[in-house]
Amino acid sequence: MTAPAILAEAQLIPLLADFADVYPRIKVDLQISDRTIDLVQDRIDLAIRIANRLDPSLIAKRLGQCSSLLYASPRYLEQYGIPTGPEDLGGHRCLTYTHLGGTEWSLRNFDSQIVISVQGTFQTNDAVALRRAALSGLGIAMLPRFAADQEVQVGKLVVVLPAWQPNTLGIHALYVSRKHLPMAARVLIDFLATRLADV
Predict the structure, then answer these.
(1) Taking a C-beta distance cutoff of 8 angstroms, is the pair 148, 71 a contact?
(2) How far apart are CA 32 and CA 7, in angstroms?
(3) FRET partner for 169 with CA separation of 20 to 30 A, picked from 63, 76, 147, 198?
């Protein structure tokens, strides 16, 4: 199977430990990648992806949803100030993720949605590196709550503009064929669907 790094680190690996306790004879080969992998060419049975736009040639099963927020370190906010509205983000160092949004951030509150052009000195294709950059005080990052809320609880990150949120994304299991999906992969999909309902 393949999965993005931040989901694997924060959610999947602990869940796979539980899965191994229940199904000790099933071997899981986890390939970490934030890029889209060709399941046929790379001989991958199952891909776990965080997205709303999915490859129509693949079968998708929704496992759960992923909500995100904007985060920054206390050190960064002390040095550069706290944004009071989305329009303030243009004057901040925003850390961008090449696989989702890039320098265009779409944010919504209760009754409106806005797209903001952001800029900064750091961009990456790895969401784990993006979180590390935010923790290091490099700027403001858009991160999944499952990967950042614990850092908020211990004071390492602060939620920025809590009334404004990026669009919620689905967490999906993707595979090529129902007919040729190994039974072990089916068991794993069902297990993850019960545990990733709302991370």
Answers:
(1) yes
(2) 9
(3) 76
Would the pTM count as exceeding 0.85? yes
Give residues with Cβ within 8 angstroms of 188, minimum separation 6. Answer: 1, 19, 26, 28, 46
Q: Is the pLDDT of residue 124 over 80?
A: yes
Q: Sign (positive/negative) of CA torsion 47, 52, 53, 55?
A: positive
**Which pLDDT score is estimated for 198?**
61
For 124, left (φ over 0), alpha (ψ -120 to 50), or beta?
beta
Under DSSP, the state recorded for 68 is E
Using the structure block, give the residue that is written with the tokens 């496992």: 63
Q: Is 53 helix (H, G, I), strand (E, B) or coil?
A: coil
Given a contact cutoff of 8 angstroms between Cβ atoms, the answer to whether 103 and 92 are in contact is: no
The residue type of 171 is I
pLDDT at residue 107 in the model: 96
